Amino acid sequence: MPNSSLQTLLTQTPEEGFALAVKLAQKGVEVTQPSEEIRKVLRPTYSRNADSLTAASHVIAVHFQTVAAANNYWRAWMPYYQ
Amino acid sequence: MPNSSLQTLLTQTPEEGFALAVKLAQKGVEVTQPSEEIRKVLRPTYSRNADSLTAASHVIAVHFQTVAAANNYWRAWMPYYQ
Amino acid sequence: MPNSSLQTLLTQTPEEGFALAVKLAQKGVEVTQPSEEIRKVLRPTYSRNADSLTAASHVIAVHFQTVAAANNYWRAWMPYYQ
Amino acid sequence: MPNSSLQTLLTQTPEEGFALAVKLAQKGVEVTQPSEEIRKVLRPTYSRNADSLTAASHVIAVHFQTVAAANNYWRAWMPYYQ
Amino acid sequence: MPNSSLQTLLTQTPEEGFALAVKLAQKGVEVTQPSEEIRKVLRPTYSRNADSLTAASHVIAVHFQTVAAANNYWRAWMPYYQ
Amino acid sequence: MPNSSLQTLLTQTPEEGFALAVKLAQKGVEVTQPSEEIRKVLRPTYSRNADSLTAASHVIAVHFQTVAAANNYWRAWMPYYQ
Question: Lower Cβ count inside 10 Å, N or C end of chain B?
Fold first, then answer.
């Protein structure tokens, strides 16, 4: 099941934006290793290795920067900044 | 105990912003390894490895960039920049 | 088959922007190791190593930041921000 | 001795800003490994490993980006840019 | 043969900007290891290691962010954004 | 010989800005390992390791982003952007 096509970086909330960042990080893995079967084989090992988890969290963090900037940090609804 | 939903990136102080960055880094690990049990098993090892700690600090630093930008670096209260 | 010359960072959609980020990440490898033959030899190993895949996804994430910023996060079509 | 609470990202000079970046990098380690005793045990090893030192310098660099941006790169005192 | 002095970050096209990013990444290696002889000895090994190639591509990606921003993402010639 | 105090991020040229980025990367190592003697012992090994050199180049790249932004990418002298 490939990721659906990426139509927009805009989300309603930071929570949804974080979920999009996770999806983008996975998409980066999928384009490099398209076989879902192979990815599934790798998963049990790396998901039980702390350094692998930190590295995965790092990639998510980079994408979250992008998504957060795209959404103007979800500040539009905050009167404080207007 | 999952992280509560992420509603906003705005915080009152840099200290709270840093705490949010830590939470985001952990959230990135949790989505990759949802089992709290497994994460607890990994913790004693990586938290006593200097390179693992530096890597964790790195992810926090990336998220802190995002949170700090979202809060306009908490400069709104600083007359100097107005 | 070298990558074609890079003429623009602008794309119609985030999906195309992500594909460009992937291409840029590959281009960075190609300039360092121009031999397609050698790169092909390396591929089966690293594409079955979870940490290598995460590292590849990381580079894509950095380029996606650039491409997304270049495209103003594809926000031009969003009336909300105008 | 925990780091004192982080009240502001503003500093008078780049030198002080760099010191703050170092403090933030250490803070990221401290939240992950709160025991000062354990951190002290780790220090002699990683501080004599070149790759560990480079990794530590990397985290400082990321925080220095944040602190420098927060201070508008300390340009306010530079007539050139006004 | 040292890199020629860096006079500007501006380039005519993204393609030239990418080439500049590659040059900057090499320059960072050269200042750390000025001996061209030693660098040549290292090259055959790391250029046949997939993780080393990904790491090199990563550094290029970071510099490409800088060069692309310096050139305003080469958008000046795009009527769309004016 | 410690680095002299950091007074400004502004430089006349990109070349000088790159030199400052190198200095900042070294400064990050020095604050973590203040002993020049120990750093000298480590140098021969890491400066002959390709991955260590790439990692050092990476840190320089991050600082160069900061320095380049601080100097508005040295664009002030470019009539094109005015």
Answer: N
Farthest-apart Cα atoms in chain B, separation: 50
Residue with tokens 């190198």: F22
Task: Give CA–CA dist A76/A60, Å, rounded.
Answer: 23
Q: Does F54 touch chain D (CB under 8 A)?
A: no
Question: Tokens 């310096």 map to which residue?
Answer: E70
> Which pTM was predicted?
0.92
Which positions of chain A have pLDDT values less than 70?
A: 1-3, 76-82
Tens-level pLDDT at each residue, chain C (82 residues) = 345 789 999 999 999 999 999 999 999 999 999 999 999 999 998 999 999 999 999 999 999 999 999 999 998 644 343 3
Domains of chain F by residue range: 14-77
Could you tell me which residues come within 8 angstroms of residue D54 by beta carbon, excluding any fewer than 6 positions away? F29, F46, F52, F55, F56, F59
List chain E residues with CB under 8 Å of C7. 13-15
State whether D45 and B50 contact (CB < 8 Å).
Answer: yes
CA atoms within 13 A on the CB side of C72: 13
